[in-house]
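Protocol step 4 of 5: obtain the predicted structure for the target chain.
Materials: sequence only (see below). No template structures provided, no constraints applied. The aim of this step is simply to have a reference model before the mutagenesis design in step 5. Sequence pasted as it appears in the construct record:
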Amino acid sequence: MSSKNSQQSDNLAQYERTTKEDRNKKIKEQKILIDELSNLKKNRRVYIQQPNSNIFFLSDKGETLSSCKVQLDKMKKDHQDI
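Step 4 output (structure tokens):
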């Protein structure tokens, strides 16, 4: 019985590490995205992919950048809460 409990706790610890690593990876990706958007020239076009499809729509660079920053702030807050 104790081996089963230790196995469950090991699985839980591994899951927490994996989710923490995934969160760190997504935060890093978001930071890179913000840097890329910030360094674009004024006349460059930005497209946003629609969820669950391969369709892209033209978007405003400023709006896209601000929404990415908001997402990054949410990710950081969620990461700190855990």
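Step 4 remarks: Residues 2-81 form a domain with the Helix Hairpins fold (CATH 1.10.287). The chain has one domain: 2-81.
Proceed to step 5.
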